[in-house]
Amino acid sequence: MTKRPLPLRTGSLTSKQALLTLLLAVLISVIAGCLELFNHAASMREDVAQRVEQQLAIVNGAAAEAAFQLNPDLANQIAYGLFSDDEIAQVTIRDDFGAALAEFVPDSATETSWLSQRLFGDMLRYREPLNYFVAADLPEAEVGEVELRLDEHSLTQQFLARSVSVVGSSVVEAFILSLLIIAFFHYFITRPLLKVHDAIVHTDPERPGQWAKPQLHGHRQDELGHLVDSLDHLLQAFQKGLDQRDQLHHLSHNDGLTGVANRRHFDLFYKQQWQRTQHHAQPLSVIFIDIDNFKEFNDHYGHAMGDDTLRAVAQVLNQCIDPDQELLARYGGEEFVCILPGKDEAAALDVAQCLRRAVLSLAIPHAYSSTHTHLTASMGVASTSRHTALSATALLALADQHLYHAKQRGRNRIEARPSTV
Ligand SMILES: Nc1nc2c(ncn2[C@@H]2O[C@H](COP(=O)(O)OP(=O)(O)OP(=O)(O)O)[C@@H](O)[C@H]2O)c(=O)[nH]1
């Protein structure tokens, strides 16, 4: 049977594994990046609130002084100091009547967005009372307040700038990690699997036991090693089954003594070739071969010698035919038959001459033969090229009849028609 390679499939294991790993890496890095951003937003809110409170604590004394003295210059200086911070959008210092001593507001309205509202919307405004010790023996008195509004646009920009670097580094880390994972899996799993796949694909289905069992270094004790061993056991078992099948086929198709085709094989082959040659209007010839005076041979040289002789005869007869197209079978006892599909009577007579001479060439002495000093054989030939109207059975009967004539006419001869050849 010719080896048929399996069709190549697109999408290698390595590329699938690489794609899956990269997708997973991107997904994990996005999730990790989001978590990190969530933490970052919380810590940024904490930092901003702490900074603002520190700034308010620093300016509280001076602002209280300005409010107590109703000093707009001092109030303006303090408010400007606060306003110059990029994160602060608006500063107002008021006296205890609520009148503004100093106020800095942005030139244009600050940009607001959904993100800035979500992140910082609840912490934009700060109001700090200004307490002042009027006299050492009197309690603190509230003399005004400082009000701040943070610049949500500036805060959001800071957050986004940081986010890009956080997500970017998270993606790069994930990418590098996924490359390492891809290389690792390719080297330790995909490559050995591909070796096994390659060995299986290149195994001849008629000889599975002869597969090139892959040597997977470093995998002898793991699942891959076990997989190769299991495959090997399986293929050896298949091979055993195929060997038994071939053996049974041989036994059922071949003669146990001579090794040539048996009667059963002959019947099948003859039927098959008869139909084929009839269908293609080709000739088919049959030669019956019978060893002469074999009873005497057996009686005098013994049955064992008779068996050896039958084997030797079968072997030489086989050399006269084309084993790919024609068949030599043991028809029974000391009788053989040849089927010659595609050969007409003239060609069949040539083969018969070859067969007759082949038996003579063995030069097996037969001192008890009534006709010759050595072993000979007689043959009867019949061909559809001459007898076109005959049936398959009738053609065999005719060849047998010609063989009978050959015996009658002195043996060691070939008969193809009532007259002698
Ligand atoms: N050794 C051996 N002898 C066999 C075997 N099969 C058949 N024979 C013998 O072949 C002989 C055939 O004898 P006959 O049919 O009388 O034919 P013959 O003696 O060859 O005479 P003709 O065919 O007329 O030349 C018999 O003695 C069988 O026992 C076999 O397998 N082994």
UniProtKB/TrEMBL annotation:
Cleavable signal peptide: none
Domain GGDEF: 282-419
UniProt entry tagged with the keyword Nucleotidyltransferase: yes
Keyword Transmembrane: yes
EC number: 2.7.7.65
SMART domains documented for this protein: GGDEF
A matching Pfam family: GGDEF
Entry keyword set: Membrane, Nucleotidyltransferase, Transferase, Transmembrane, Transmembrane helix
Superkingdom, natural source: Bacteria
Enzyme class at the top of the EC tree: transferase
PANTHER family, sorted: DIGUANYLATE CYCLASE DGCM-RELATED, REGULATORY COMPONENTS OF SENSORY TRANSDUCTION SYSTEM
Transmembrane domains' residue ranges: 166-189
GO molecular function: diguanylate cyclase activity
InterPro entries, per database record: Diguanylate_Cyclase, GGDEF_dom, Nucleotide_cyclase, Rev_trsase/Diguanyl_cyclase
Catalytic activity: 2 GTP = 3',3'-c-di-GMP + 2 diphosphate
Protein name: diguanylate cyclase
